[in-house]
Automatic annotation (TrEMBL), chain A:
This is MoaD/ThiS family protein. InterPro entries: Beta-grasp_dom_sf (IPR012675), Mopterin_synth/thiamin_S_b (IPR016155), Sulfur_Carrier/Prot_Modifier (IPR052045), ThiS/MoaD-like (IPR003749). It comes from Glycomyces luteolus. PANTHER family: SULFUR CARRIER PROTEIN CYSO (PTHR38031:SF1), SULFUR CARRIER PROTEIN SLR0821-RELATED (PTHR38031). It comes from the Bacteria. Pfam families: ThiS. CDD domains: Ubl_CysO_like.
């Protein structure tokens, strides 16, 4: 099973500059494990040591923000597309 | 040589890997200021996209402030995905990420710098607009990386509107008007 992942500019240092990479896994957590094997350090930018998503990163499966569909436990199907984006936020 | 280029005070630093000046059409500055005014007293936020690799701001994209707050802003997750998909299809990148401060100066706050440094938009000019003065908005541009904030001059191209409803601030002052 193969899932395409769109990598934001800030994380392309982990993918040799590639903006589109491919990983494996039937959940998001397994996908990030598979990605980290090929692209060292990528997982750590998205997933905390406690095993949750970092607060200021958005991850989508197709058009769904994964926070609303189970976070790292969200299920993946063959052909799904995952997008990682920095959350853009701040305050005075 | 322009005034800005002759100063030499903004020598490249860690936060400033690209050309350390924001060169932008006056219409885009006016669009950011108008958006900030329209959303006042809430903070406004948005992007200016440009063709990938050029660093040229071209397309203004006002964004929803999902926080709907006078003191905080956050892109709406669903809208941000839609906008990113359009940029991906157009081979565009984020050139400017802007937001407004409605009661404080146009300078990145601790949370602005902290969040931008965690997982930010490398290469983007972070533009701040303050609407605390009801008559004249102030616009400033920064690079943010590793929690280091580096201010840069703004170089406006084209003829600014006859009556200025905004001003630029940079220390030392190095605003360049290119009215050719």
């Amino acid at each position: 099973m193969s899932v395409e992942v769109r990598v934001p500019t800030i994380l392309r240092t982990h993918t040799g500059g590639q903006k589109l990479v491919t990983g494996e896994g039937d959940t998001l957590a397994k996908l990030f494990d598979s990605l980290d094997a090929q692209h060292a350090g990528l997982k750590g930018r998205v997933v905390t040591d406690e095993g949750t998503l970092h607060r200021f990163v958005n991850v989508y499966i197709n058009d769904e923000d994964v926070r609303f569909i189970g976070g790292l436990d969200a299920a993946l199907a063959d052909g799904d597309q995952v997008t990682i984006l920095p959350a853009v936020a701040g305050g005075m | 040589m322009s005034h800005a280029l002759s100063e030499g005070f903004w020598a490249p630093r860690a936060a400033c890997t690209l050309a350390c000046v924001l060169r932008i059409a006056h219409e885009l500055v006016e669009a950011m200021v108008a958006h900030a005014r329209a959303d006042h007293p809430d903070e406004a936020c948005g992007l200016i996209a440009g063709p990938e690799g050029t660093g040229e701001p071209k397309r203004h994209i006002p964004m929803i402030n999902a926080a709907r707050s006078t003191t905080f802003y956050e892109f709406d997750s669903e809208e941000w995905k839609q906008v990113y998909d359009q940029m991906w299809d157009n081979d565009e990148e984020v050139v400017v990420a802007y937001h407004s401060h409605t009661h404080t100066e146009a300078y990145p706050s601790r949370s602005d710098a902290g969040i931008a440094s965690q997982l930010g938009l490398p290469g983007a000019h972070y533009v701040l607009v303050t609407t605390k003065d009801p008559d004249v908005a102030e616009v400033r541009s920064f690079r943010i990386a590793d929690e280091v904030i580096t201010e840069e001059p703004i170089e406006v191209t084209g003829a600014p509107e006859a009556v200025q409803s905004y001003k630029f601030a940079h220390t030392p002052d190095s605003t360049v008007y290119d009215c050719s």
